[in-house]
Amino acid sequence: MPEQYDIIREAIRAGRPVATATIIGGGQLGAKLLIFADGSVRGSLGDESLERRVVADALPMLAQAITRAVEYADLGAMVFVESFAPPPTLFMVGGVHISIALGALAKVLGFRTVVVDARSAFATDERFPHADELVIAWPDEALEGRLDARSCVAVLTHDPKLDDPALRVALASQAKYIGALGSTKTHAKRLERLRDEGFGEDQLARIHGPIGLPIGAKTPAEIALSILAEVVKVQRGK
Amino acid sequence: MHEMIDQIDAWLARGEGVAVATVVKTMGSSPRLVGAKMIVASGGSMAGSVSGGCIEGAIFGFCQEALKTGEARLLHFGVADEMAWEVGLACGGEIDVFVEPLR
Fold first, then answer.
1. Which of A42, A196, A224, A236 is deepest in the core (most CB within 10 A)?
2. Would you call B83 an interface residue with chain A, using a CB distance cutoff of 8 Å?
């Protein structure tokens, strides 16, 4: 078994993020360094100062699951950094009817899906047979400590008692996407409440509300499409 | 890579060598994203793709060569490139593909 491949394979199987940095121009062509999220490495690029810089550049790329070539002109090297990371997670707050369509479509796009609701009648296996995980808990408890830089959060209950705690945790995290369902009016009120709690405008601007791209969506499936279209737009930095 | 693990393992279990071709850069329109892979076994099997089918034939040859020499290589394919014309990179884009023996 090729040694480096074996390590990559085991990491992928275990859902442990790993990046590979391969010299594709200059230097020792094909030399490879494996970089884990905790900063530990395996392998070698044959140049310690290049390795230090590559690790520093690759770690934030791995956190965002970015894959691209990076040029080190002063060292005369081109390095291809490839991130292998488990799929990002879409957290749907509210076991509502929109979450059913949203969860199904999100699976098609490759997300891991989690439905969160404090009301056990809403978040059931029967209603969400395709969800990877159902969490029956208050949204703030359910989300605390689980949102990373690639996580997406869609807050969908319409109920401030459930929505607001979820938004508080999401805003305190590095979540890639935060969206909240509700009309322009509802959203304005929501922002006012969060402003009163001390959230600044920069933080509040992270919330996409009303959620989804304006495509005139009416049915749950169409709303799910508009939400995921917005998620993709944010993921692609457009 | 996720979806290729089973295939690679099957080839390795048969005692074959494996070469990997990866799209490392794209310019202009191109059918596959950076990171797209094609894998080739020394016995002549292949899986995956690095373009819309335009340059896979050429890549197959480079992979076989990499398995023989044990050396990695960076390849460029563009419309202005004669070889790409031959193999027909019709999308009008340009791509860089890195070919390496699996280590």
1. A224
2. no
